Amino acid sequence: MPSRRPIVALLLACAALAAGCGGDAEGENAYVGEVQAAQRTFVTGFDQVRGRLTATSTLAQDRATLASFARITGSFNASLARIEPPAGVRRQHRALVAVIARLEQQFERGRLRLQRGGTDTDRSVVRTELSSSVDGTQAQVSKAVADINAGLRG
Length: 154
Description:
This protein is an all-alpha fold. The protein has five helices and no strands. It has one domain (4-153). It has helices at residues 4-15, 25-49, 59-82, 90-116, 120-153.
């Protein structure tokens, strides 16, 4: 199970978007507000689900939890994809959307792996892979947000 620490850090990176630094401050502020609203919804959903993968959870519960993670991440990704970024950061915004899409795919791969096998080893491998995925995603989100911020600053 991915721990809360990397997810929180990942989402703090999203929340770190700068606002009002370039030419169209109103549009940029609106963009930043929309990204941060999508991020808050994701955090809320993630927090509601994260405690379900435990040492005592059943295989069926783990599968359902991973499906929930994939659904919540997919919803976050769809929300980000619907946001119209300012012209100067469209490429960077697409990169952020792509990073979150890959995280969604990782949760779905974990769920599918548990569909095929349900041993303790399988469950351990899935948890390890997801933790690594979340850690890697954190770095990618941080880079995407830094690139967005640089673009917003002009």
